[in-house]
Amino acid sequence: MAEDVSQIREAVQILKRIAEDPGVPRNIRRAAAEAINILSDQKMSIGLRAANAISRLDEVSMDPNAPLYARTSIWQAIALLEQIRD
After folding, report:
1. Orientation of helix 2-19 relative to helix 46-61, angle to 10°
2. Which of 5, 31, 61, 71 has its CA 20 to 30 A from that of 20?
């Protein structure tokens, strides 16, 4: 459980960098911010939060307008979140 929380915290840090980067297209910054909100929602179980955030990030990870470094960061966050289970 503590490991899951640290993985979520690390994923949120990655997503914050994307959400605050003006060089990243607005729709991708918005998706990163939405994923942060999903991960912060204490009403859902930790596994459900991770799955919902992955779903949201998956949509924009293939966006051709995404800079390569942003796409790589999104994949890094997804990889962290995929390890989380209920």
Report:
1. 30
2. 5
